[in-house]
Amino acid sequence: MDKLENCPNCNDIFVKTQFRDLCQKCWKEEEVDFETVYTFIRKRENRSATIDQVVGHTEVKEELIIKFIKKGRLQLANFPNLGYPCDKCGRTIRKGKLCENCTTELKGDLNSFQAEEKRKQDQMQREKATYYSSKD
User: Fold this and answer.
1) 1: pLDDT confidence band, cut at 50, 70 and 90?
2) Taking the CB of residue 132, how many other CB atoms lie within 10 A of it?
3) 100-105: long-range contacts, CB 8 A cutoff, minimum separation 24
4) CA-closest candidate to residue 62, choices 40, 37, 96, 31
5) In a 10 Å sphere around its CB, with 0-12 CB exposed, 13-18 middle and 19+ buried, how is residue 129 labelled?
6) Which residues contact 45 (CB under 8 A, 6 or more apart)?
């Protein structure tokens, strides 16, 4: 459902929808920036540009270019050197939220946690066990 919010860029009040998270004025400015970036990287000689090169030539903020990538407006398959930072370590990635190293580390931590929880549960079961002895 649509709701009234303040624009994160200019603080004007606007109706936020699931498709637009900025006021009309800021949205138009963002669209101009998108066209600038897309026009630059669409040229054959600029398709292999890195994000730093795109920022340098277009003067569009890196955060905004990353937003375009994450929202799927810039398809990375067409631009081999573009990417965005891993949420944990900052290494440049092209899909997901974490790089392979951070994913592997997280999986290892989860496996260790699960093994520790199972060990604790097994220990509690052993402590609760009732032992019977016969009086023969």
Assistant:
1) low
2) 4
3) none
4) 37
5) exposed
6) none
Q: Which two tokens stand for residue 116?
A: 């520790």
Give the integer Cα–Cα distance in Å for 73 and 34. Answer: 9
Give the containing element (helix H, strand E) for 15: strand 13-16
Residue 53 identity (one-letter amino acid): Q
Contact assessment for residue 96 and residue 82, using Cβ atoms and an 8 Å cutoff = no
Residue 58: other Cβ atoms inside 10 A: 20
| Size of the chain in residues | 136
Tens-digit pLDDT profile for residues 3-32: 889 999 999 998 988 888 899 999 999 999
Classify 127 as helix, strand or coil: helix
DSSP line for 58-126: H---HHHHHHHHHTTSS-GGG-TT--EE-TTT--EESSSSS-HHHHHHHHHHHHHHHHHHHHHHHHHHH
For residue 131, pLDDT beyond 70: no
Task: For residue 77, give both structure tokens.
Answer: 């398959």
| CB contact at 8 A, 78 and 43 | no
